[in-house]
Design a protein that fits this description.
The protein is built from 16 helices and seven strands. It is mainly alpha-helical and 445 residues long. The protein folds into two domains: 205 residues, Cytochrome c-like domain (Cytochrome Bc1 Complex, Chain D, domain 2), CATH 1.10.760.10; 204 residues, Cytochrome Bc1 Complex, Chain D, domain 2. The longest helix is centred in the middle third of the chain and has 15 residues.
Length: 445
């Protein structure tokens, strides 16, 4: 990636809005055909797997640990303590003398509506994406190519956290899964995916339930597991019953007067819909908006750096670009940005209106990361002034002038994107999981 650092200064970036008209197209309402249906038995199976720590190297963390309905399908913190942590949400922290672990470098993204057919690119940097020219129809990170077809990007994405040392696998020397990952042995008959699959298959209840899906004599495969998890995510976190949805469906009074004014600003003068377009309010593309970098970063070139999309494509034009997130239930999904840099919705909205000024004035002390060896918190580390200048130079957004009243109306509209059932989910957590392992306990403070 070092060559990108030398090339970035030569790359001219046109304004994101240069070719856009002032008013964006108003999206059509979501229909039932937008989200594929799955047998309910598969959804229930996926729910157990989503909450079961059996898929982590040390059997101590589950998908639900960082993606919990009570925290807007994320975890409520800027950068999580994954493997090695205890607790959920704001109460999660590391343990003294546990071993090698660190903050996960990027904010845990929300899962709302990821089962919709239009979501074909996932992760902040898009490293999992549908591609008809790629093996099995999806591009995947090096060493993690698909072994069998999967029905959607969500099932492909679910393969990745369980082999991430910081997220679920653990550190080398702690367990067999982590050792295989450290050796680069993820795929194949003796790889980490297969060993995790064998764990699940050895649980009689899981094997019996998979039998109705794959047959009595077909060996279980890791993609069978992630397909079930994806089915649960698509069902549990479908969120299409907000006031915004009612308004799109023709109910003129579904939005309050401030929300309606915010709607008009969002799709007009404020130019929010330049990127946050369509029924899910995302263009699924990548943009450099000068989001502050905090935390450990991804090890790209300099300390605390994250090159975003460029680390996947190797293209200097993609430096500091990140995928446009959906804004569904955005009022529930703080902190915001790929690094979780902004703790409030108002803060991240104001950043979008003046990204360069906001970046250069950013104070990382507004964020407190969970402690790694206790329940204490601390401000995150930030890159040096030179790296911040590079992030600023890549910004594609032009400033937008709004009055304080207009900003308040935008915020009112964004709150109208909240589905009233978003924090409860459709099923919620099971009372127990087939492995018999303990499920994370939710304690709200």
């Amino acid at each position: 990636m070092v060559h990108l650092m030398r090339k970035w200064v030569t790359v001219g970036i046109l304004s994101l809005q240069a070719s856009l008209s002032l008013a964006a197209e108003i999206p059509n309402p979501v229909t039932h055909s937008d989200i594929p249906k799955t047998p309910f038995s598969t959804i229930l199976l996926g729910r157990d797997l989503f909450f079961d720590p059996i898929l982590s190297g040390n059997r101590n963390i589950a998908c639900s640990t960082c993606h919990h309905g009570a925290f807007g399908s994320s975890d409520g913190v800027a950068l999580a303590v994954g493997e090695g942590g205890v607790g959920l949400g704001h109460a999660r922290h590391g343990q003294p003398d546990y071993g090698a672990y660190a903050h996960i470098p990027r904010n845990a993204p929300a899962l709302f509506n990821l089962g919709a057919a239009e979501f074909t690119t996932l992760f902040h940097d898009g490293r999992v994406a549908a591609d008809p020219k790629a093996r099995m129809g999806f591009t995947m990170p090096a060493g993690a190519r698909l072994e069998r077809p999967v029905p959607n990007a969500l099932a492909a994405q679910a393969l990745m956290p369980m082999t991430s040392p910081e997220e679920m696998a653990g550190a080398p020397g702690e367990n067999a899964i982590a050792d295989l990952v450290a050796e680069g042995r993820i795929r194949g008959p003796n790889g980490a995916w297969q060993k995790l699959t064998e764990r699940v298959e050895a649980v009689p209840s899981y094997r019996r339930r998979f039998q109705s899906i794959i047959g009595a004599y077909e060996p279980l495969h890791i993609t069978d597991i992630t397909t079930a998890i994806a089915a649960f995510i698509a069902y549990e976190f479908r969120s299409t019953d907000s006031p915004f949805d009612s308004y799109l469906s023709g109910r003129a009074h579904a939005l309050t007067p401030p929300q309606k004014r915010g709607f008009d600003l969002f799709f007009g003068k404020a130019r929010c819909a330049s990127c946050h377009s369509g029924p899910y309010l995302t263009d699924h593309a990548f943009h450099a908006i000068g989001m502050p970098q905090i935390g450990p970063g991804k090890g790209h070139g300099v300390l605390y750096a994250d090159y975003g999309r460029a680390a996947v494509t190797g293209d200097a034009r993609d430096l500091y670009r990140f995928r446009t997130p959906s804004l569904r239930n955005v009022a529930l999904t703080a902190p915001y940005g790929h690094s979780g840099a902004y703790p409030t919705l108002e803060g991240v909205v104001r950043h979008h209106l003046a990204p360069r000024d906001s970046l250069l004035a950013y104070d990382a002390r507004q964020i407190a990361l969970p402690g790694l060896d206790s329940n204490a918190t601390a401000p995150p580390p930030s890159p040096d002034a030179d790296e911040i200048a590079r992030i600023a130079a890549a910004i594609e957004l032009e400033p937008v002038m709004l009055s304080e009243d207009e900003i308040a109306d935008i915020l009112s509209f964004l709150n109208a994107l909240t589905d009233p059932h978003a924090t409860t989910g459709r099923l919620g957590a099971p009372l127990m999981v087939p492995s018999g392992l303990e499920i994370d306990k939710l304690t709200l403070h």
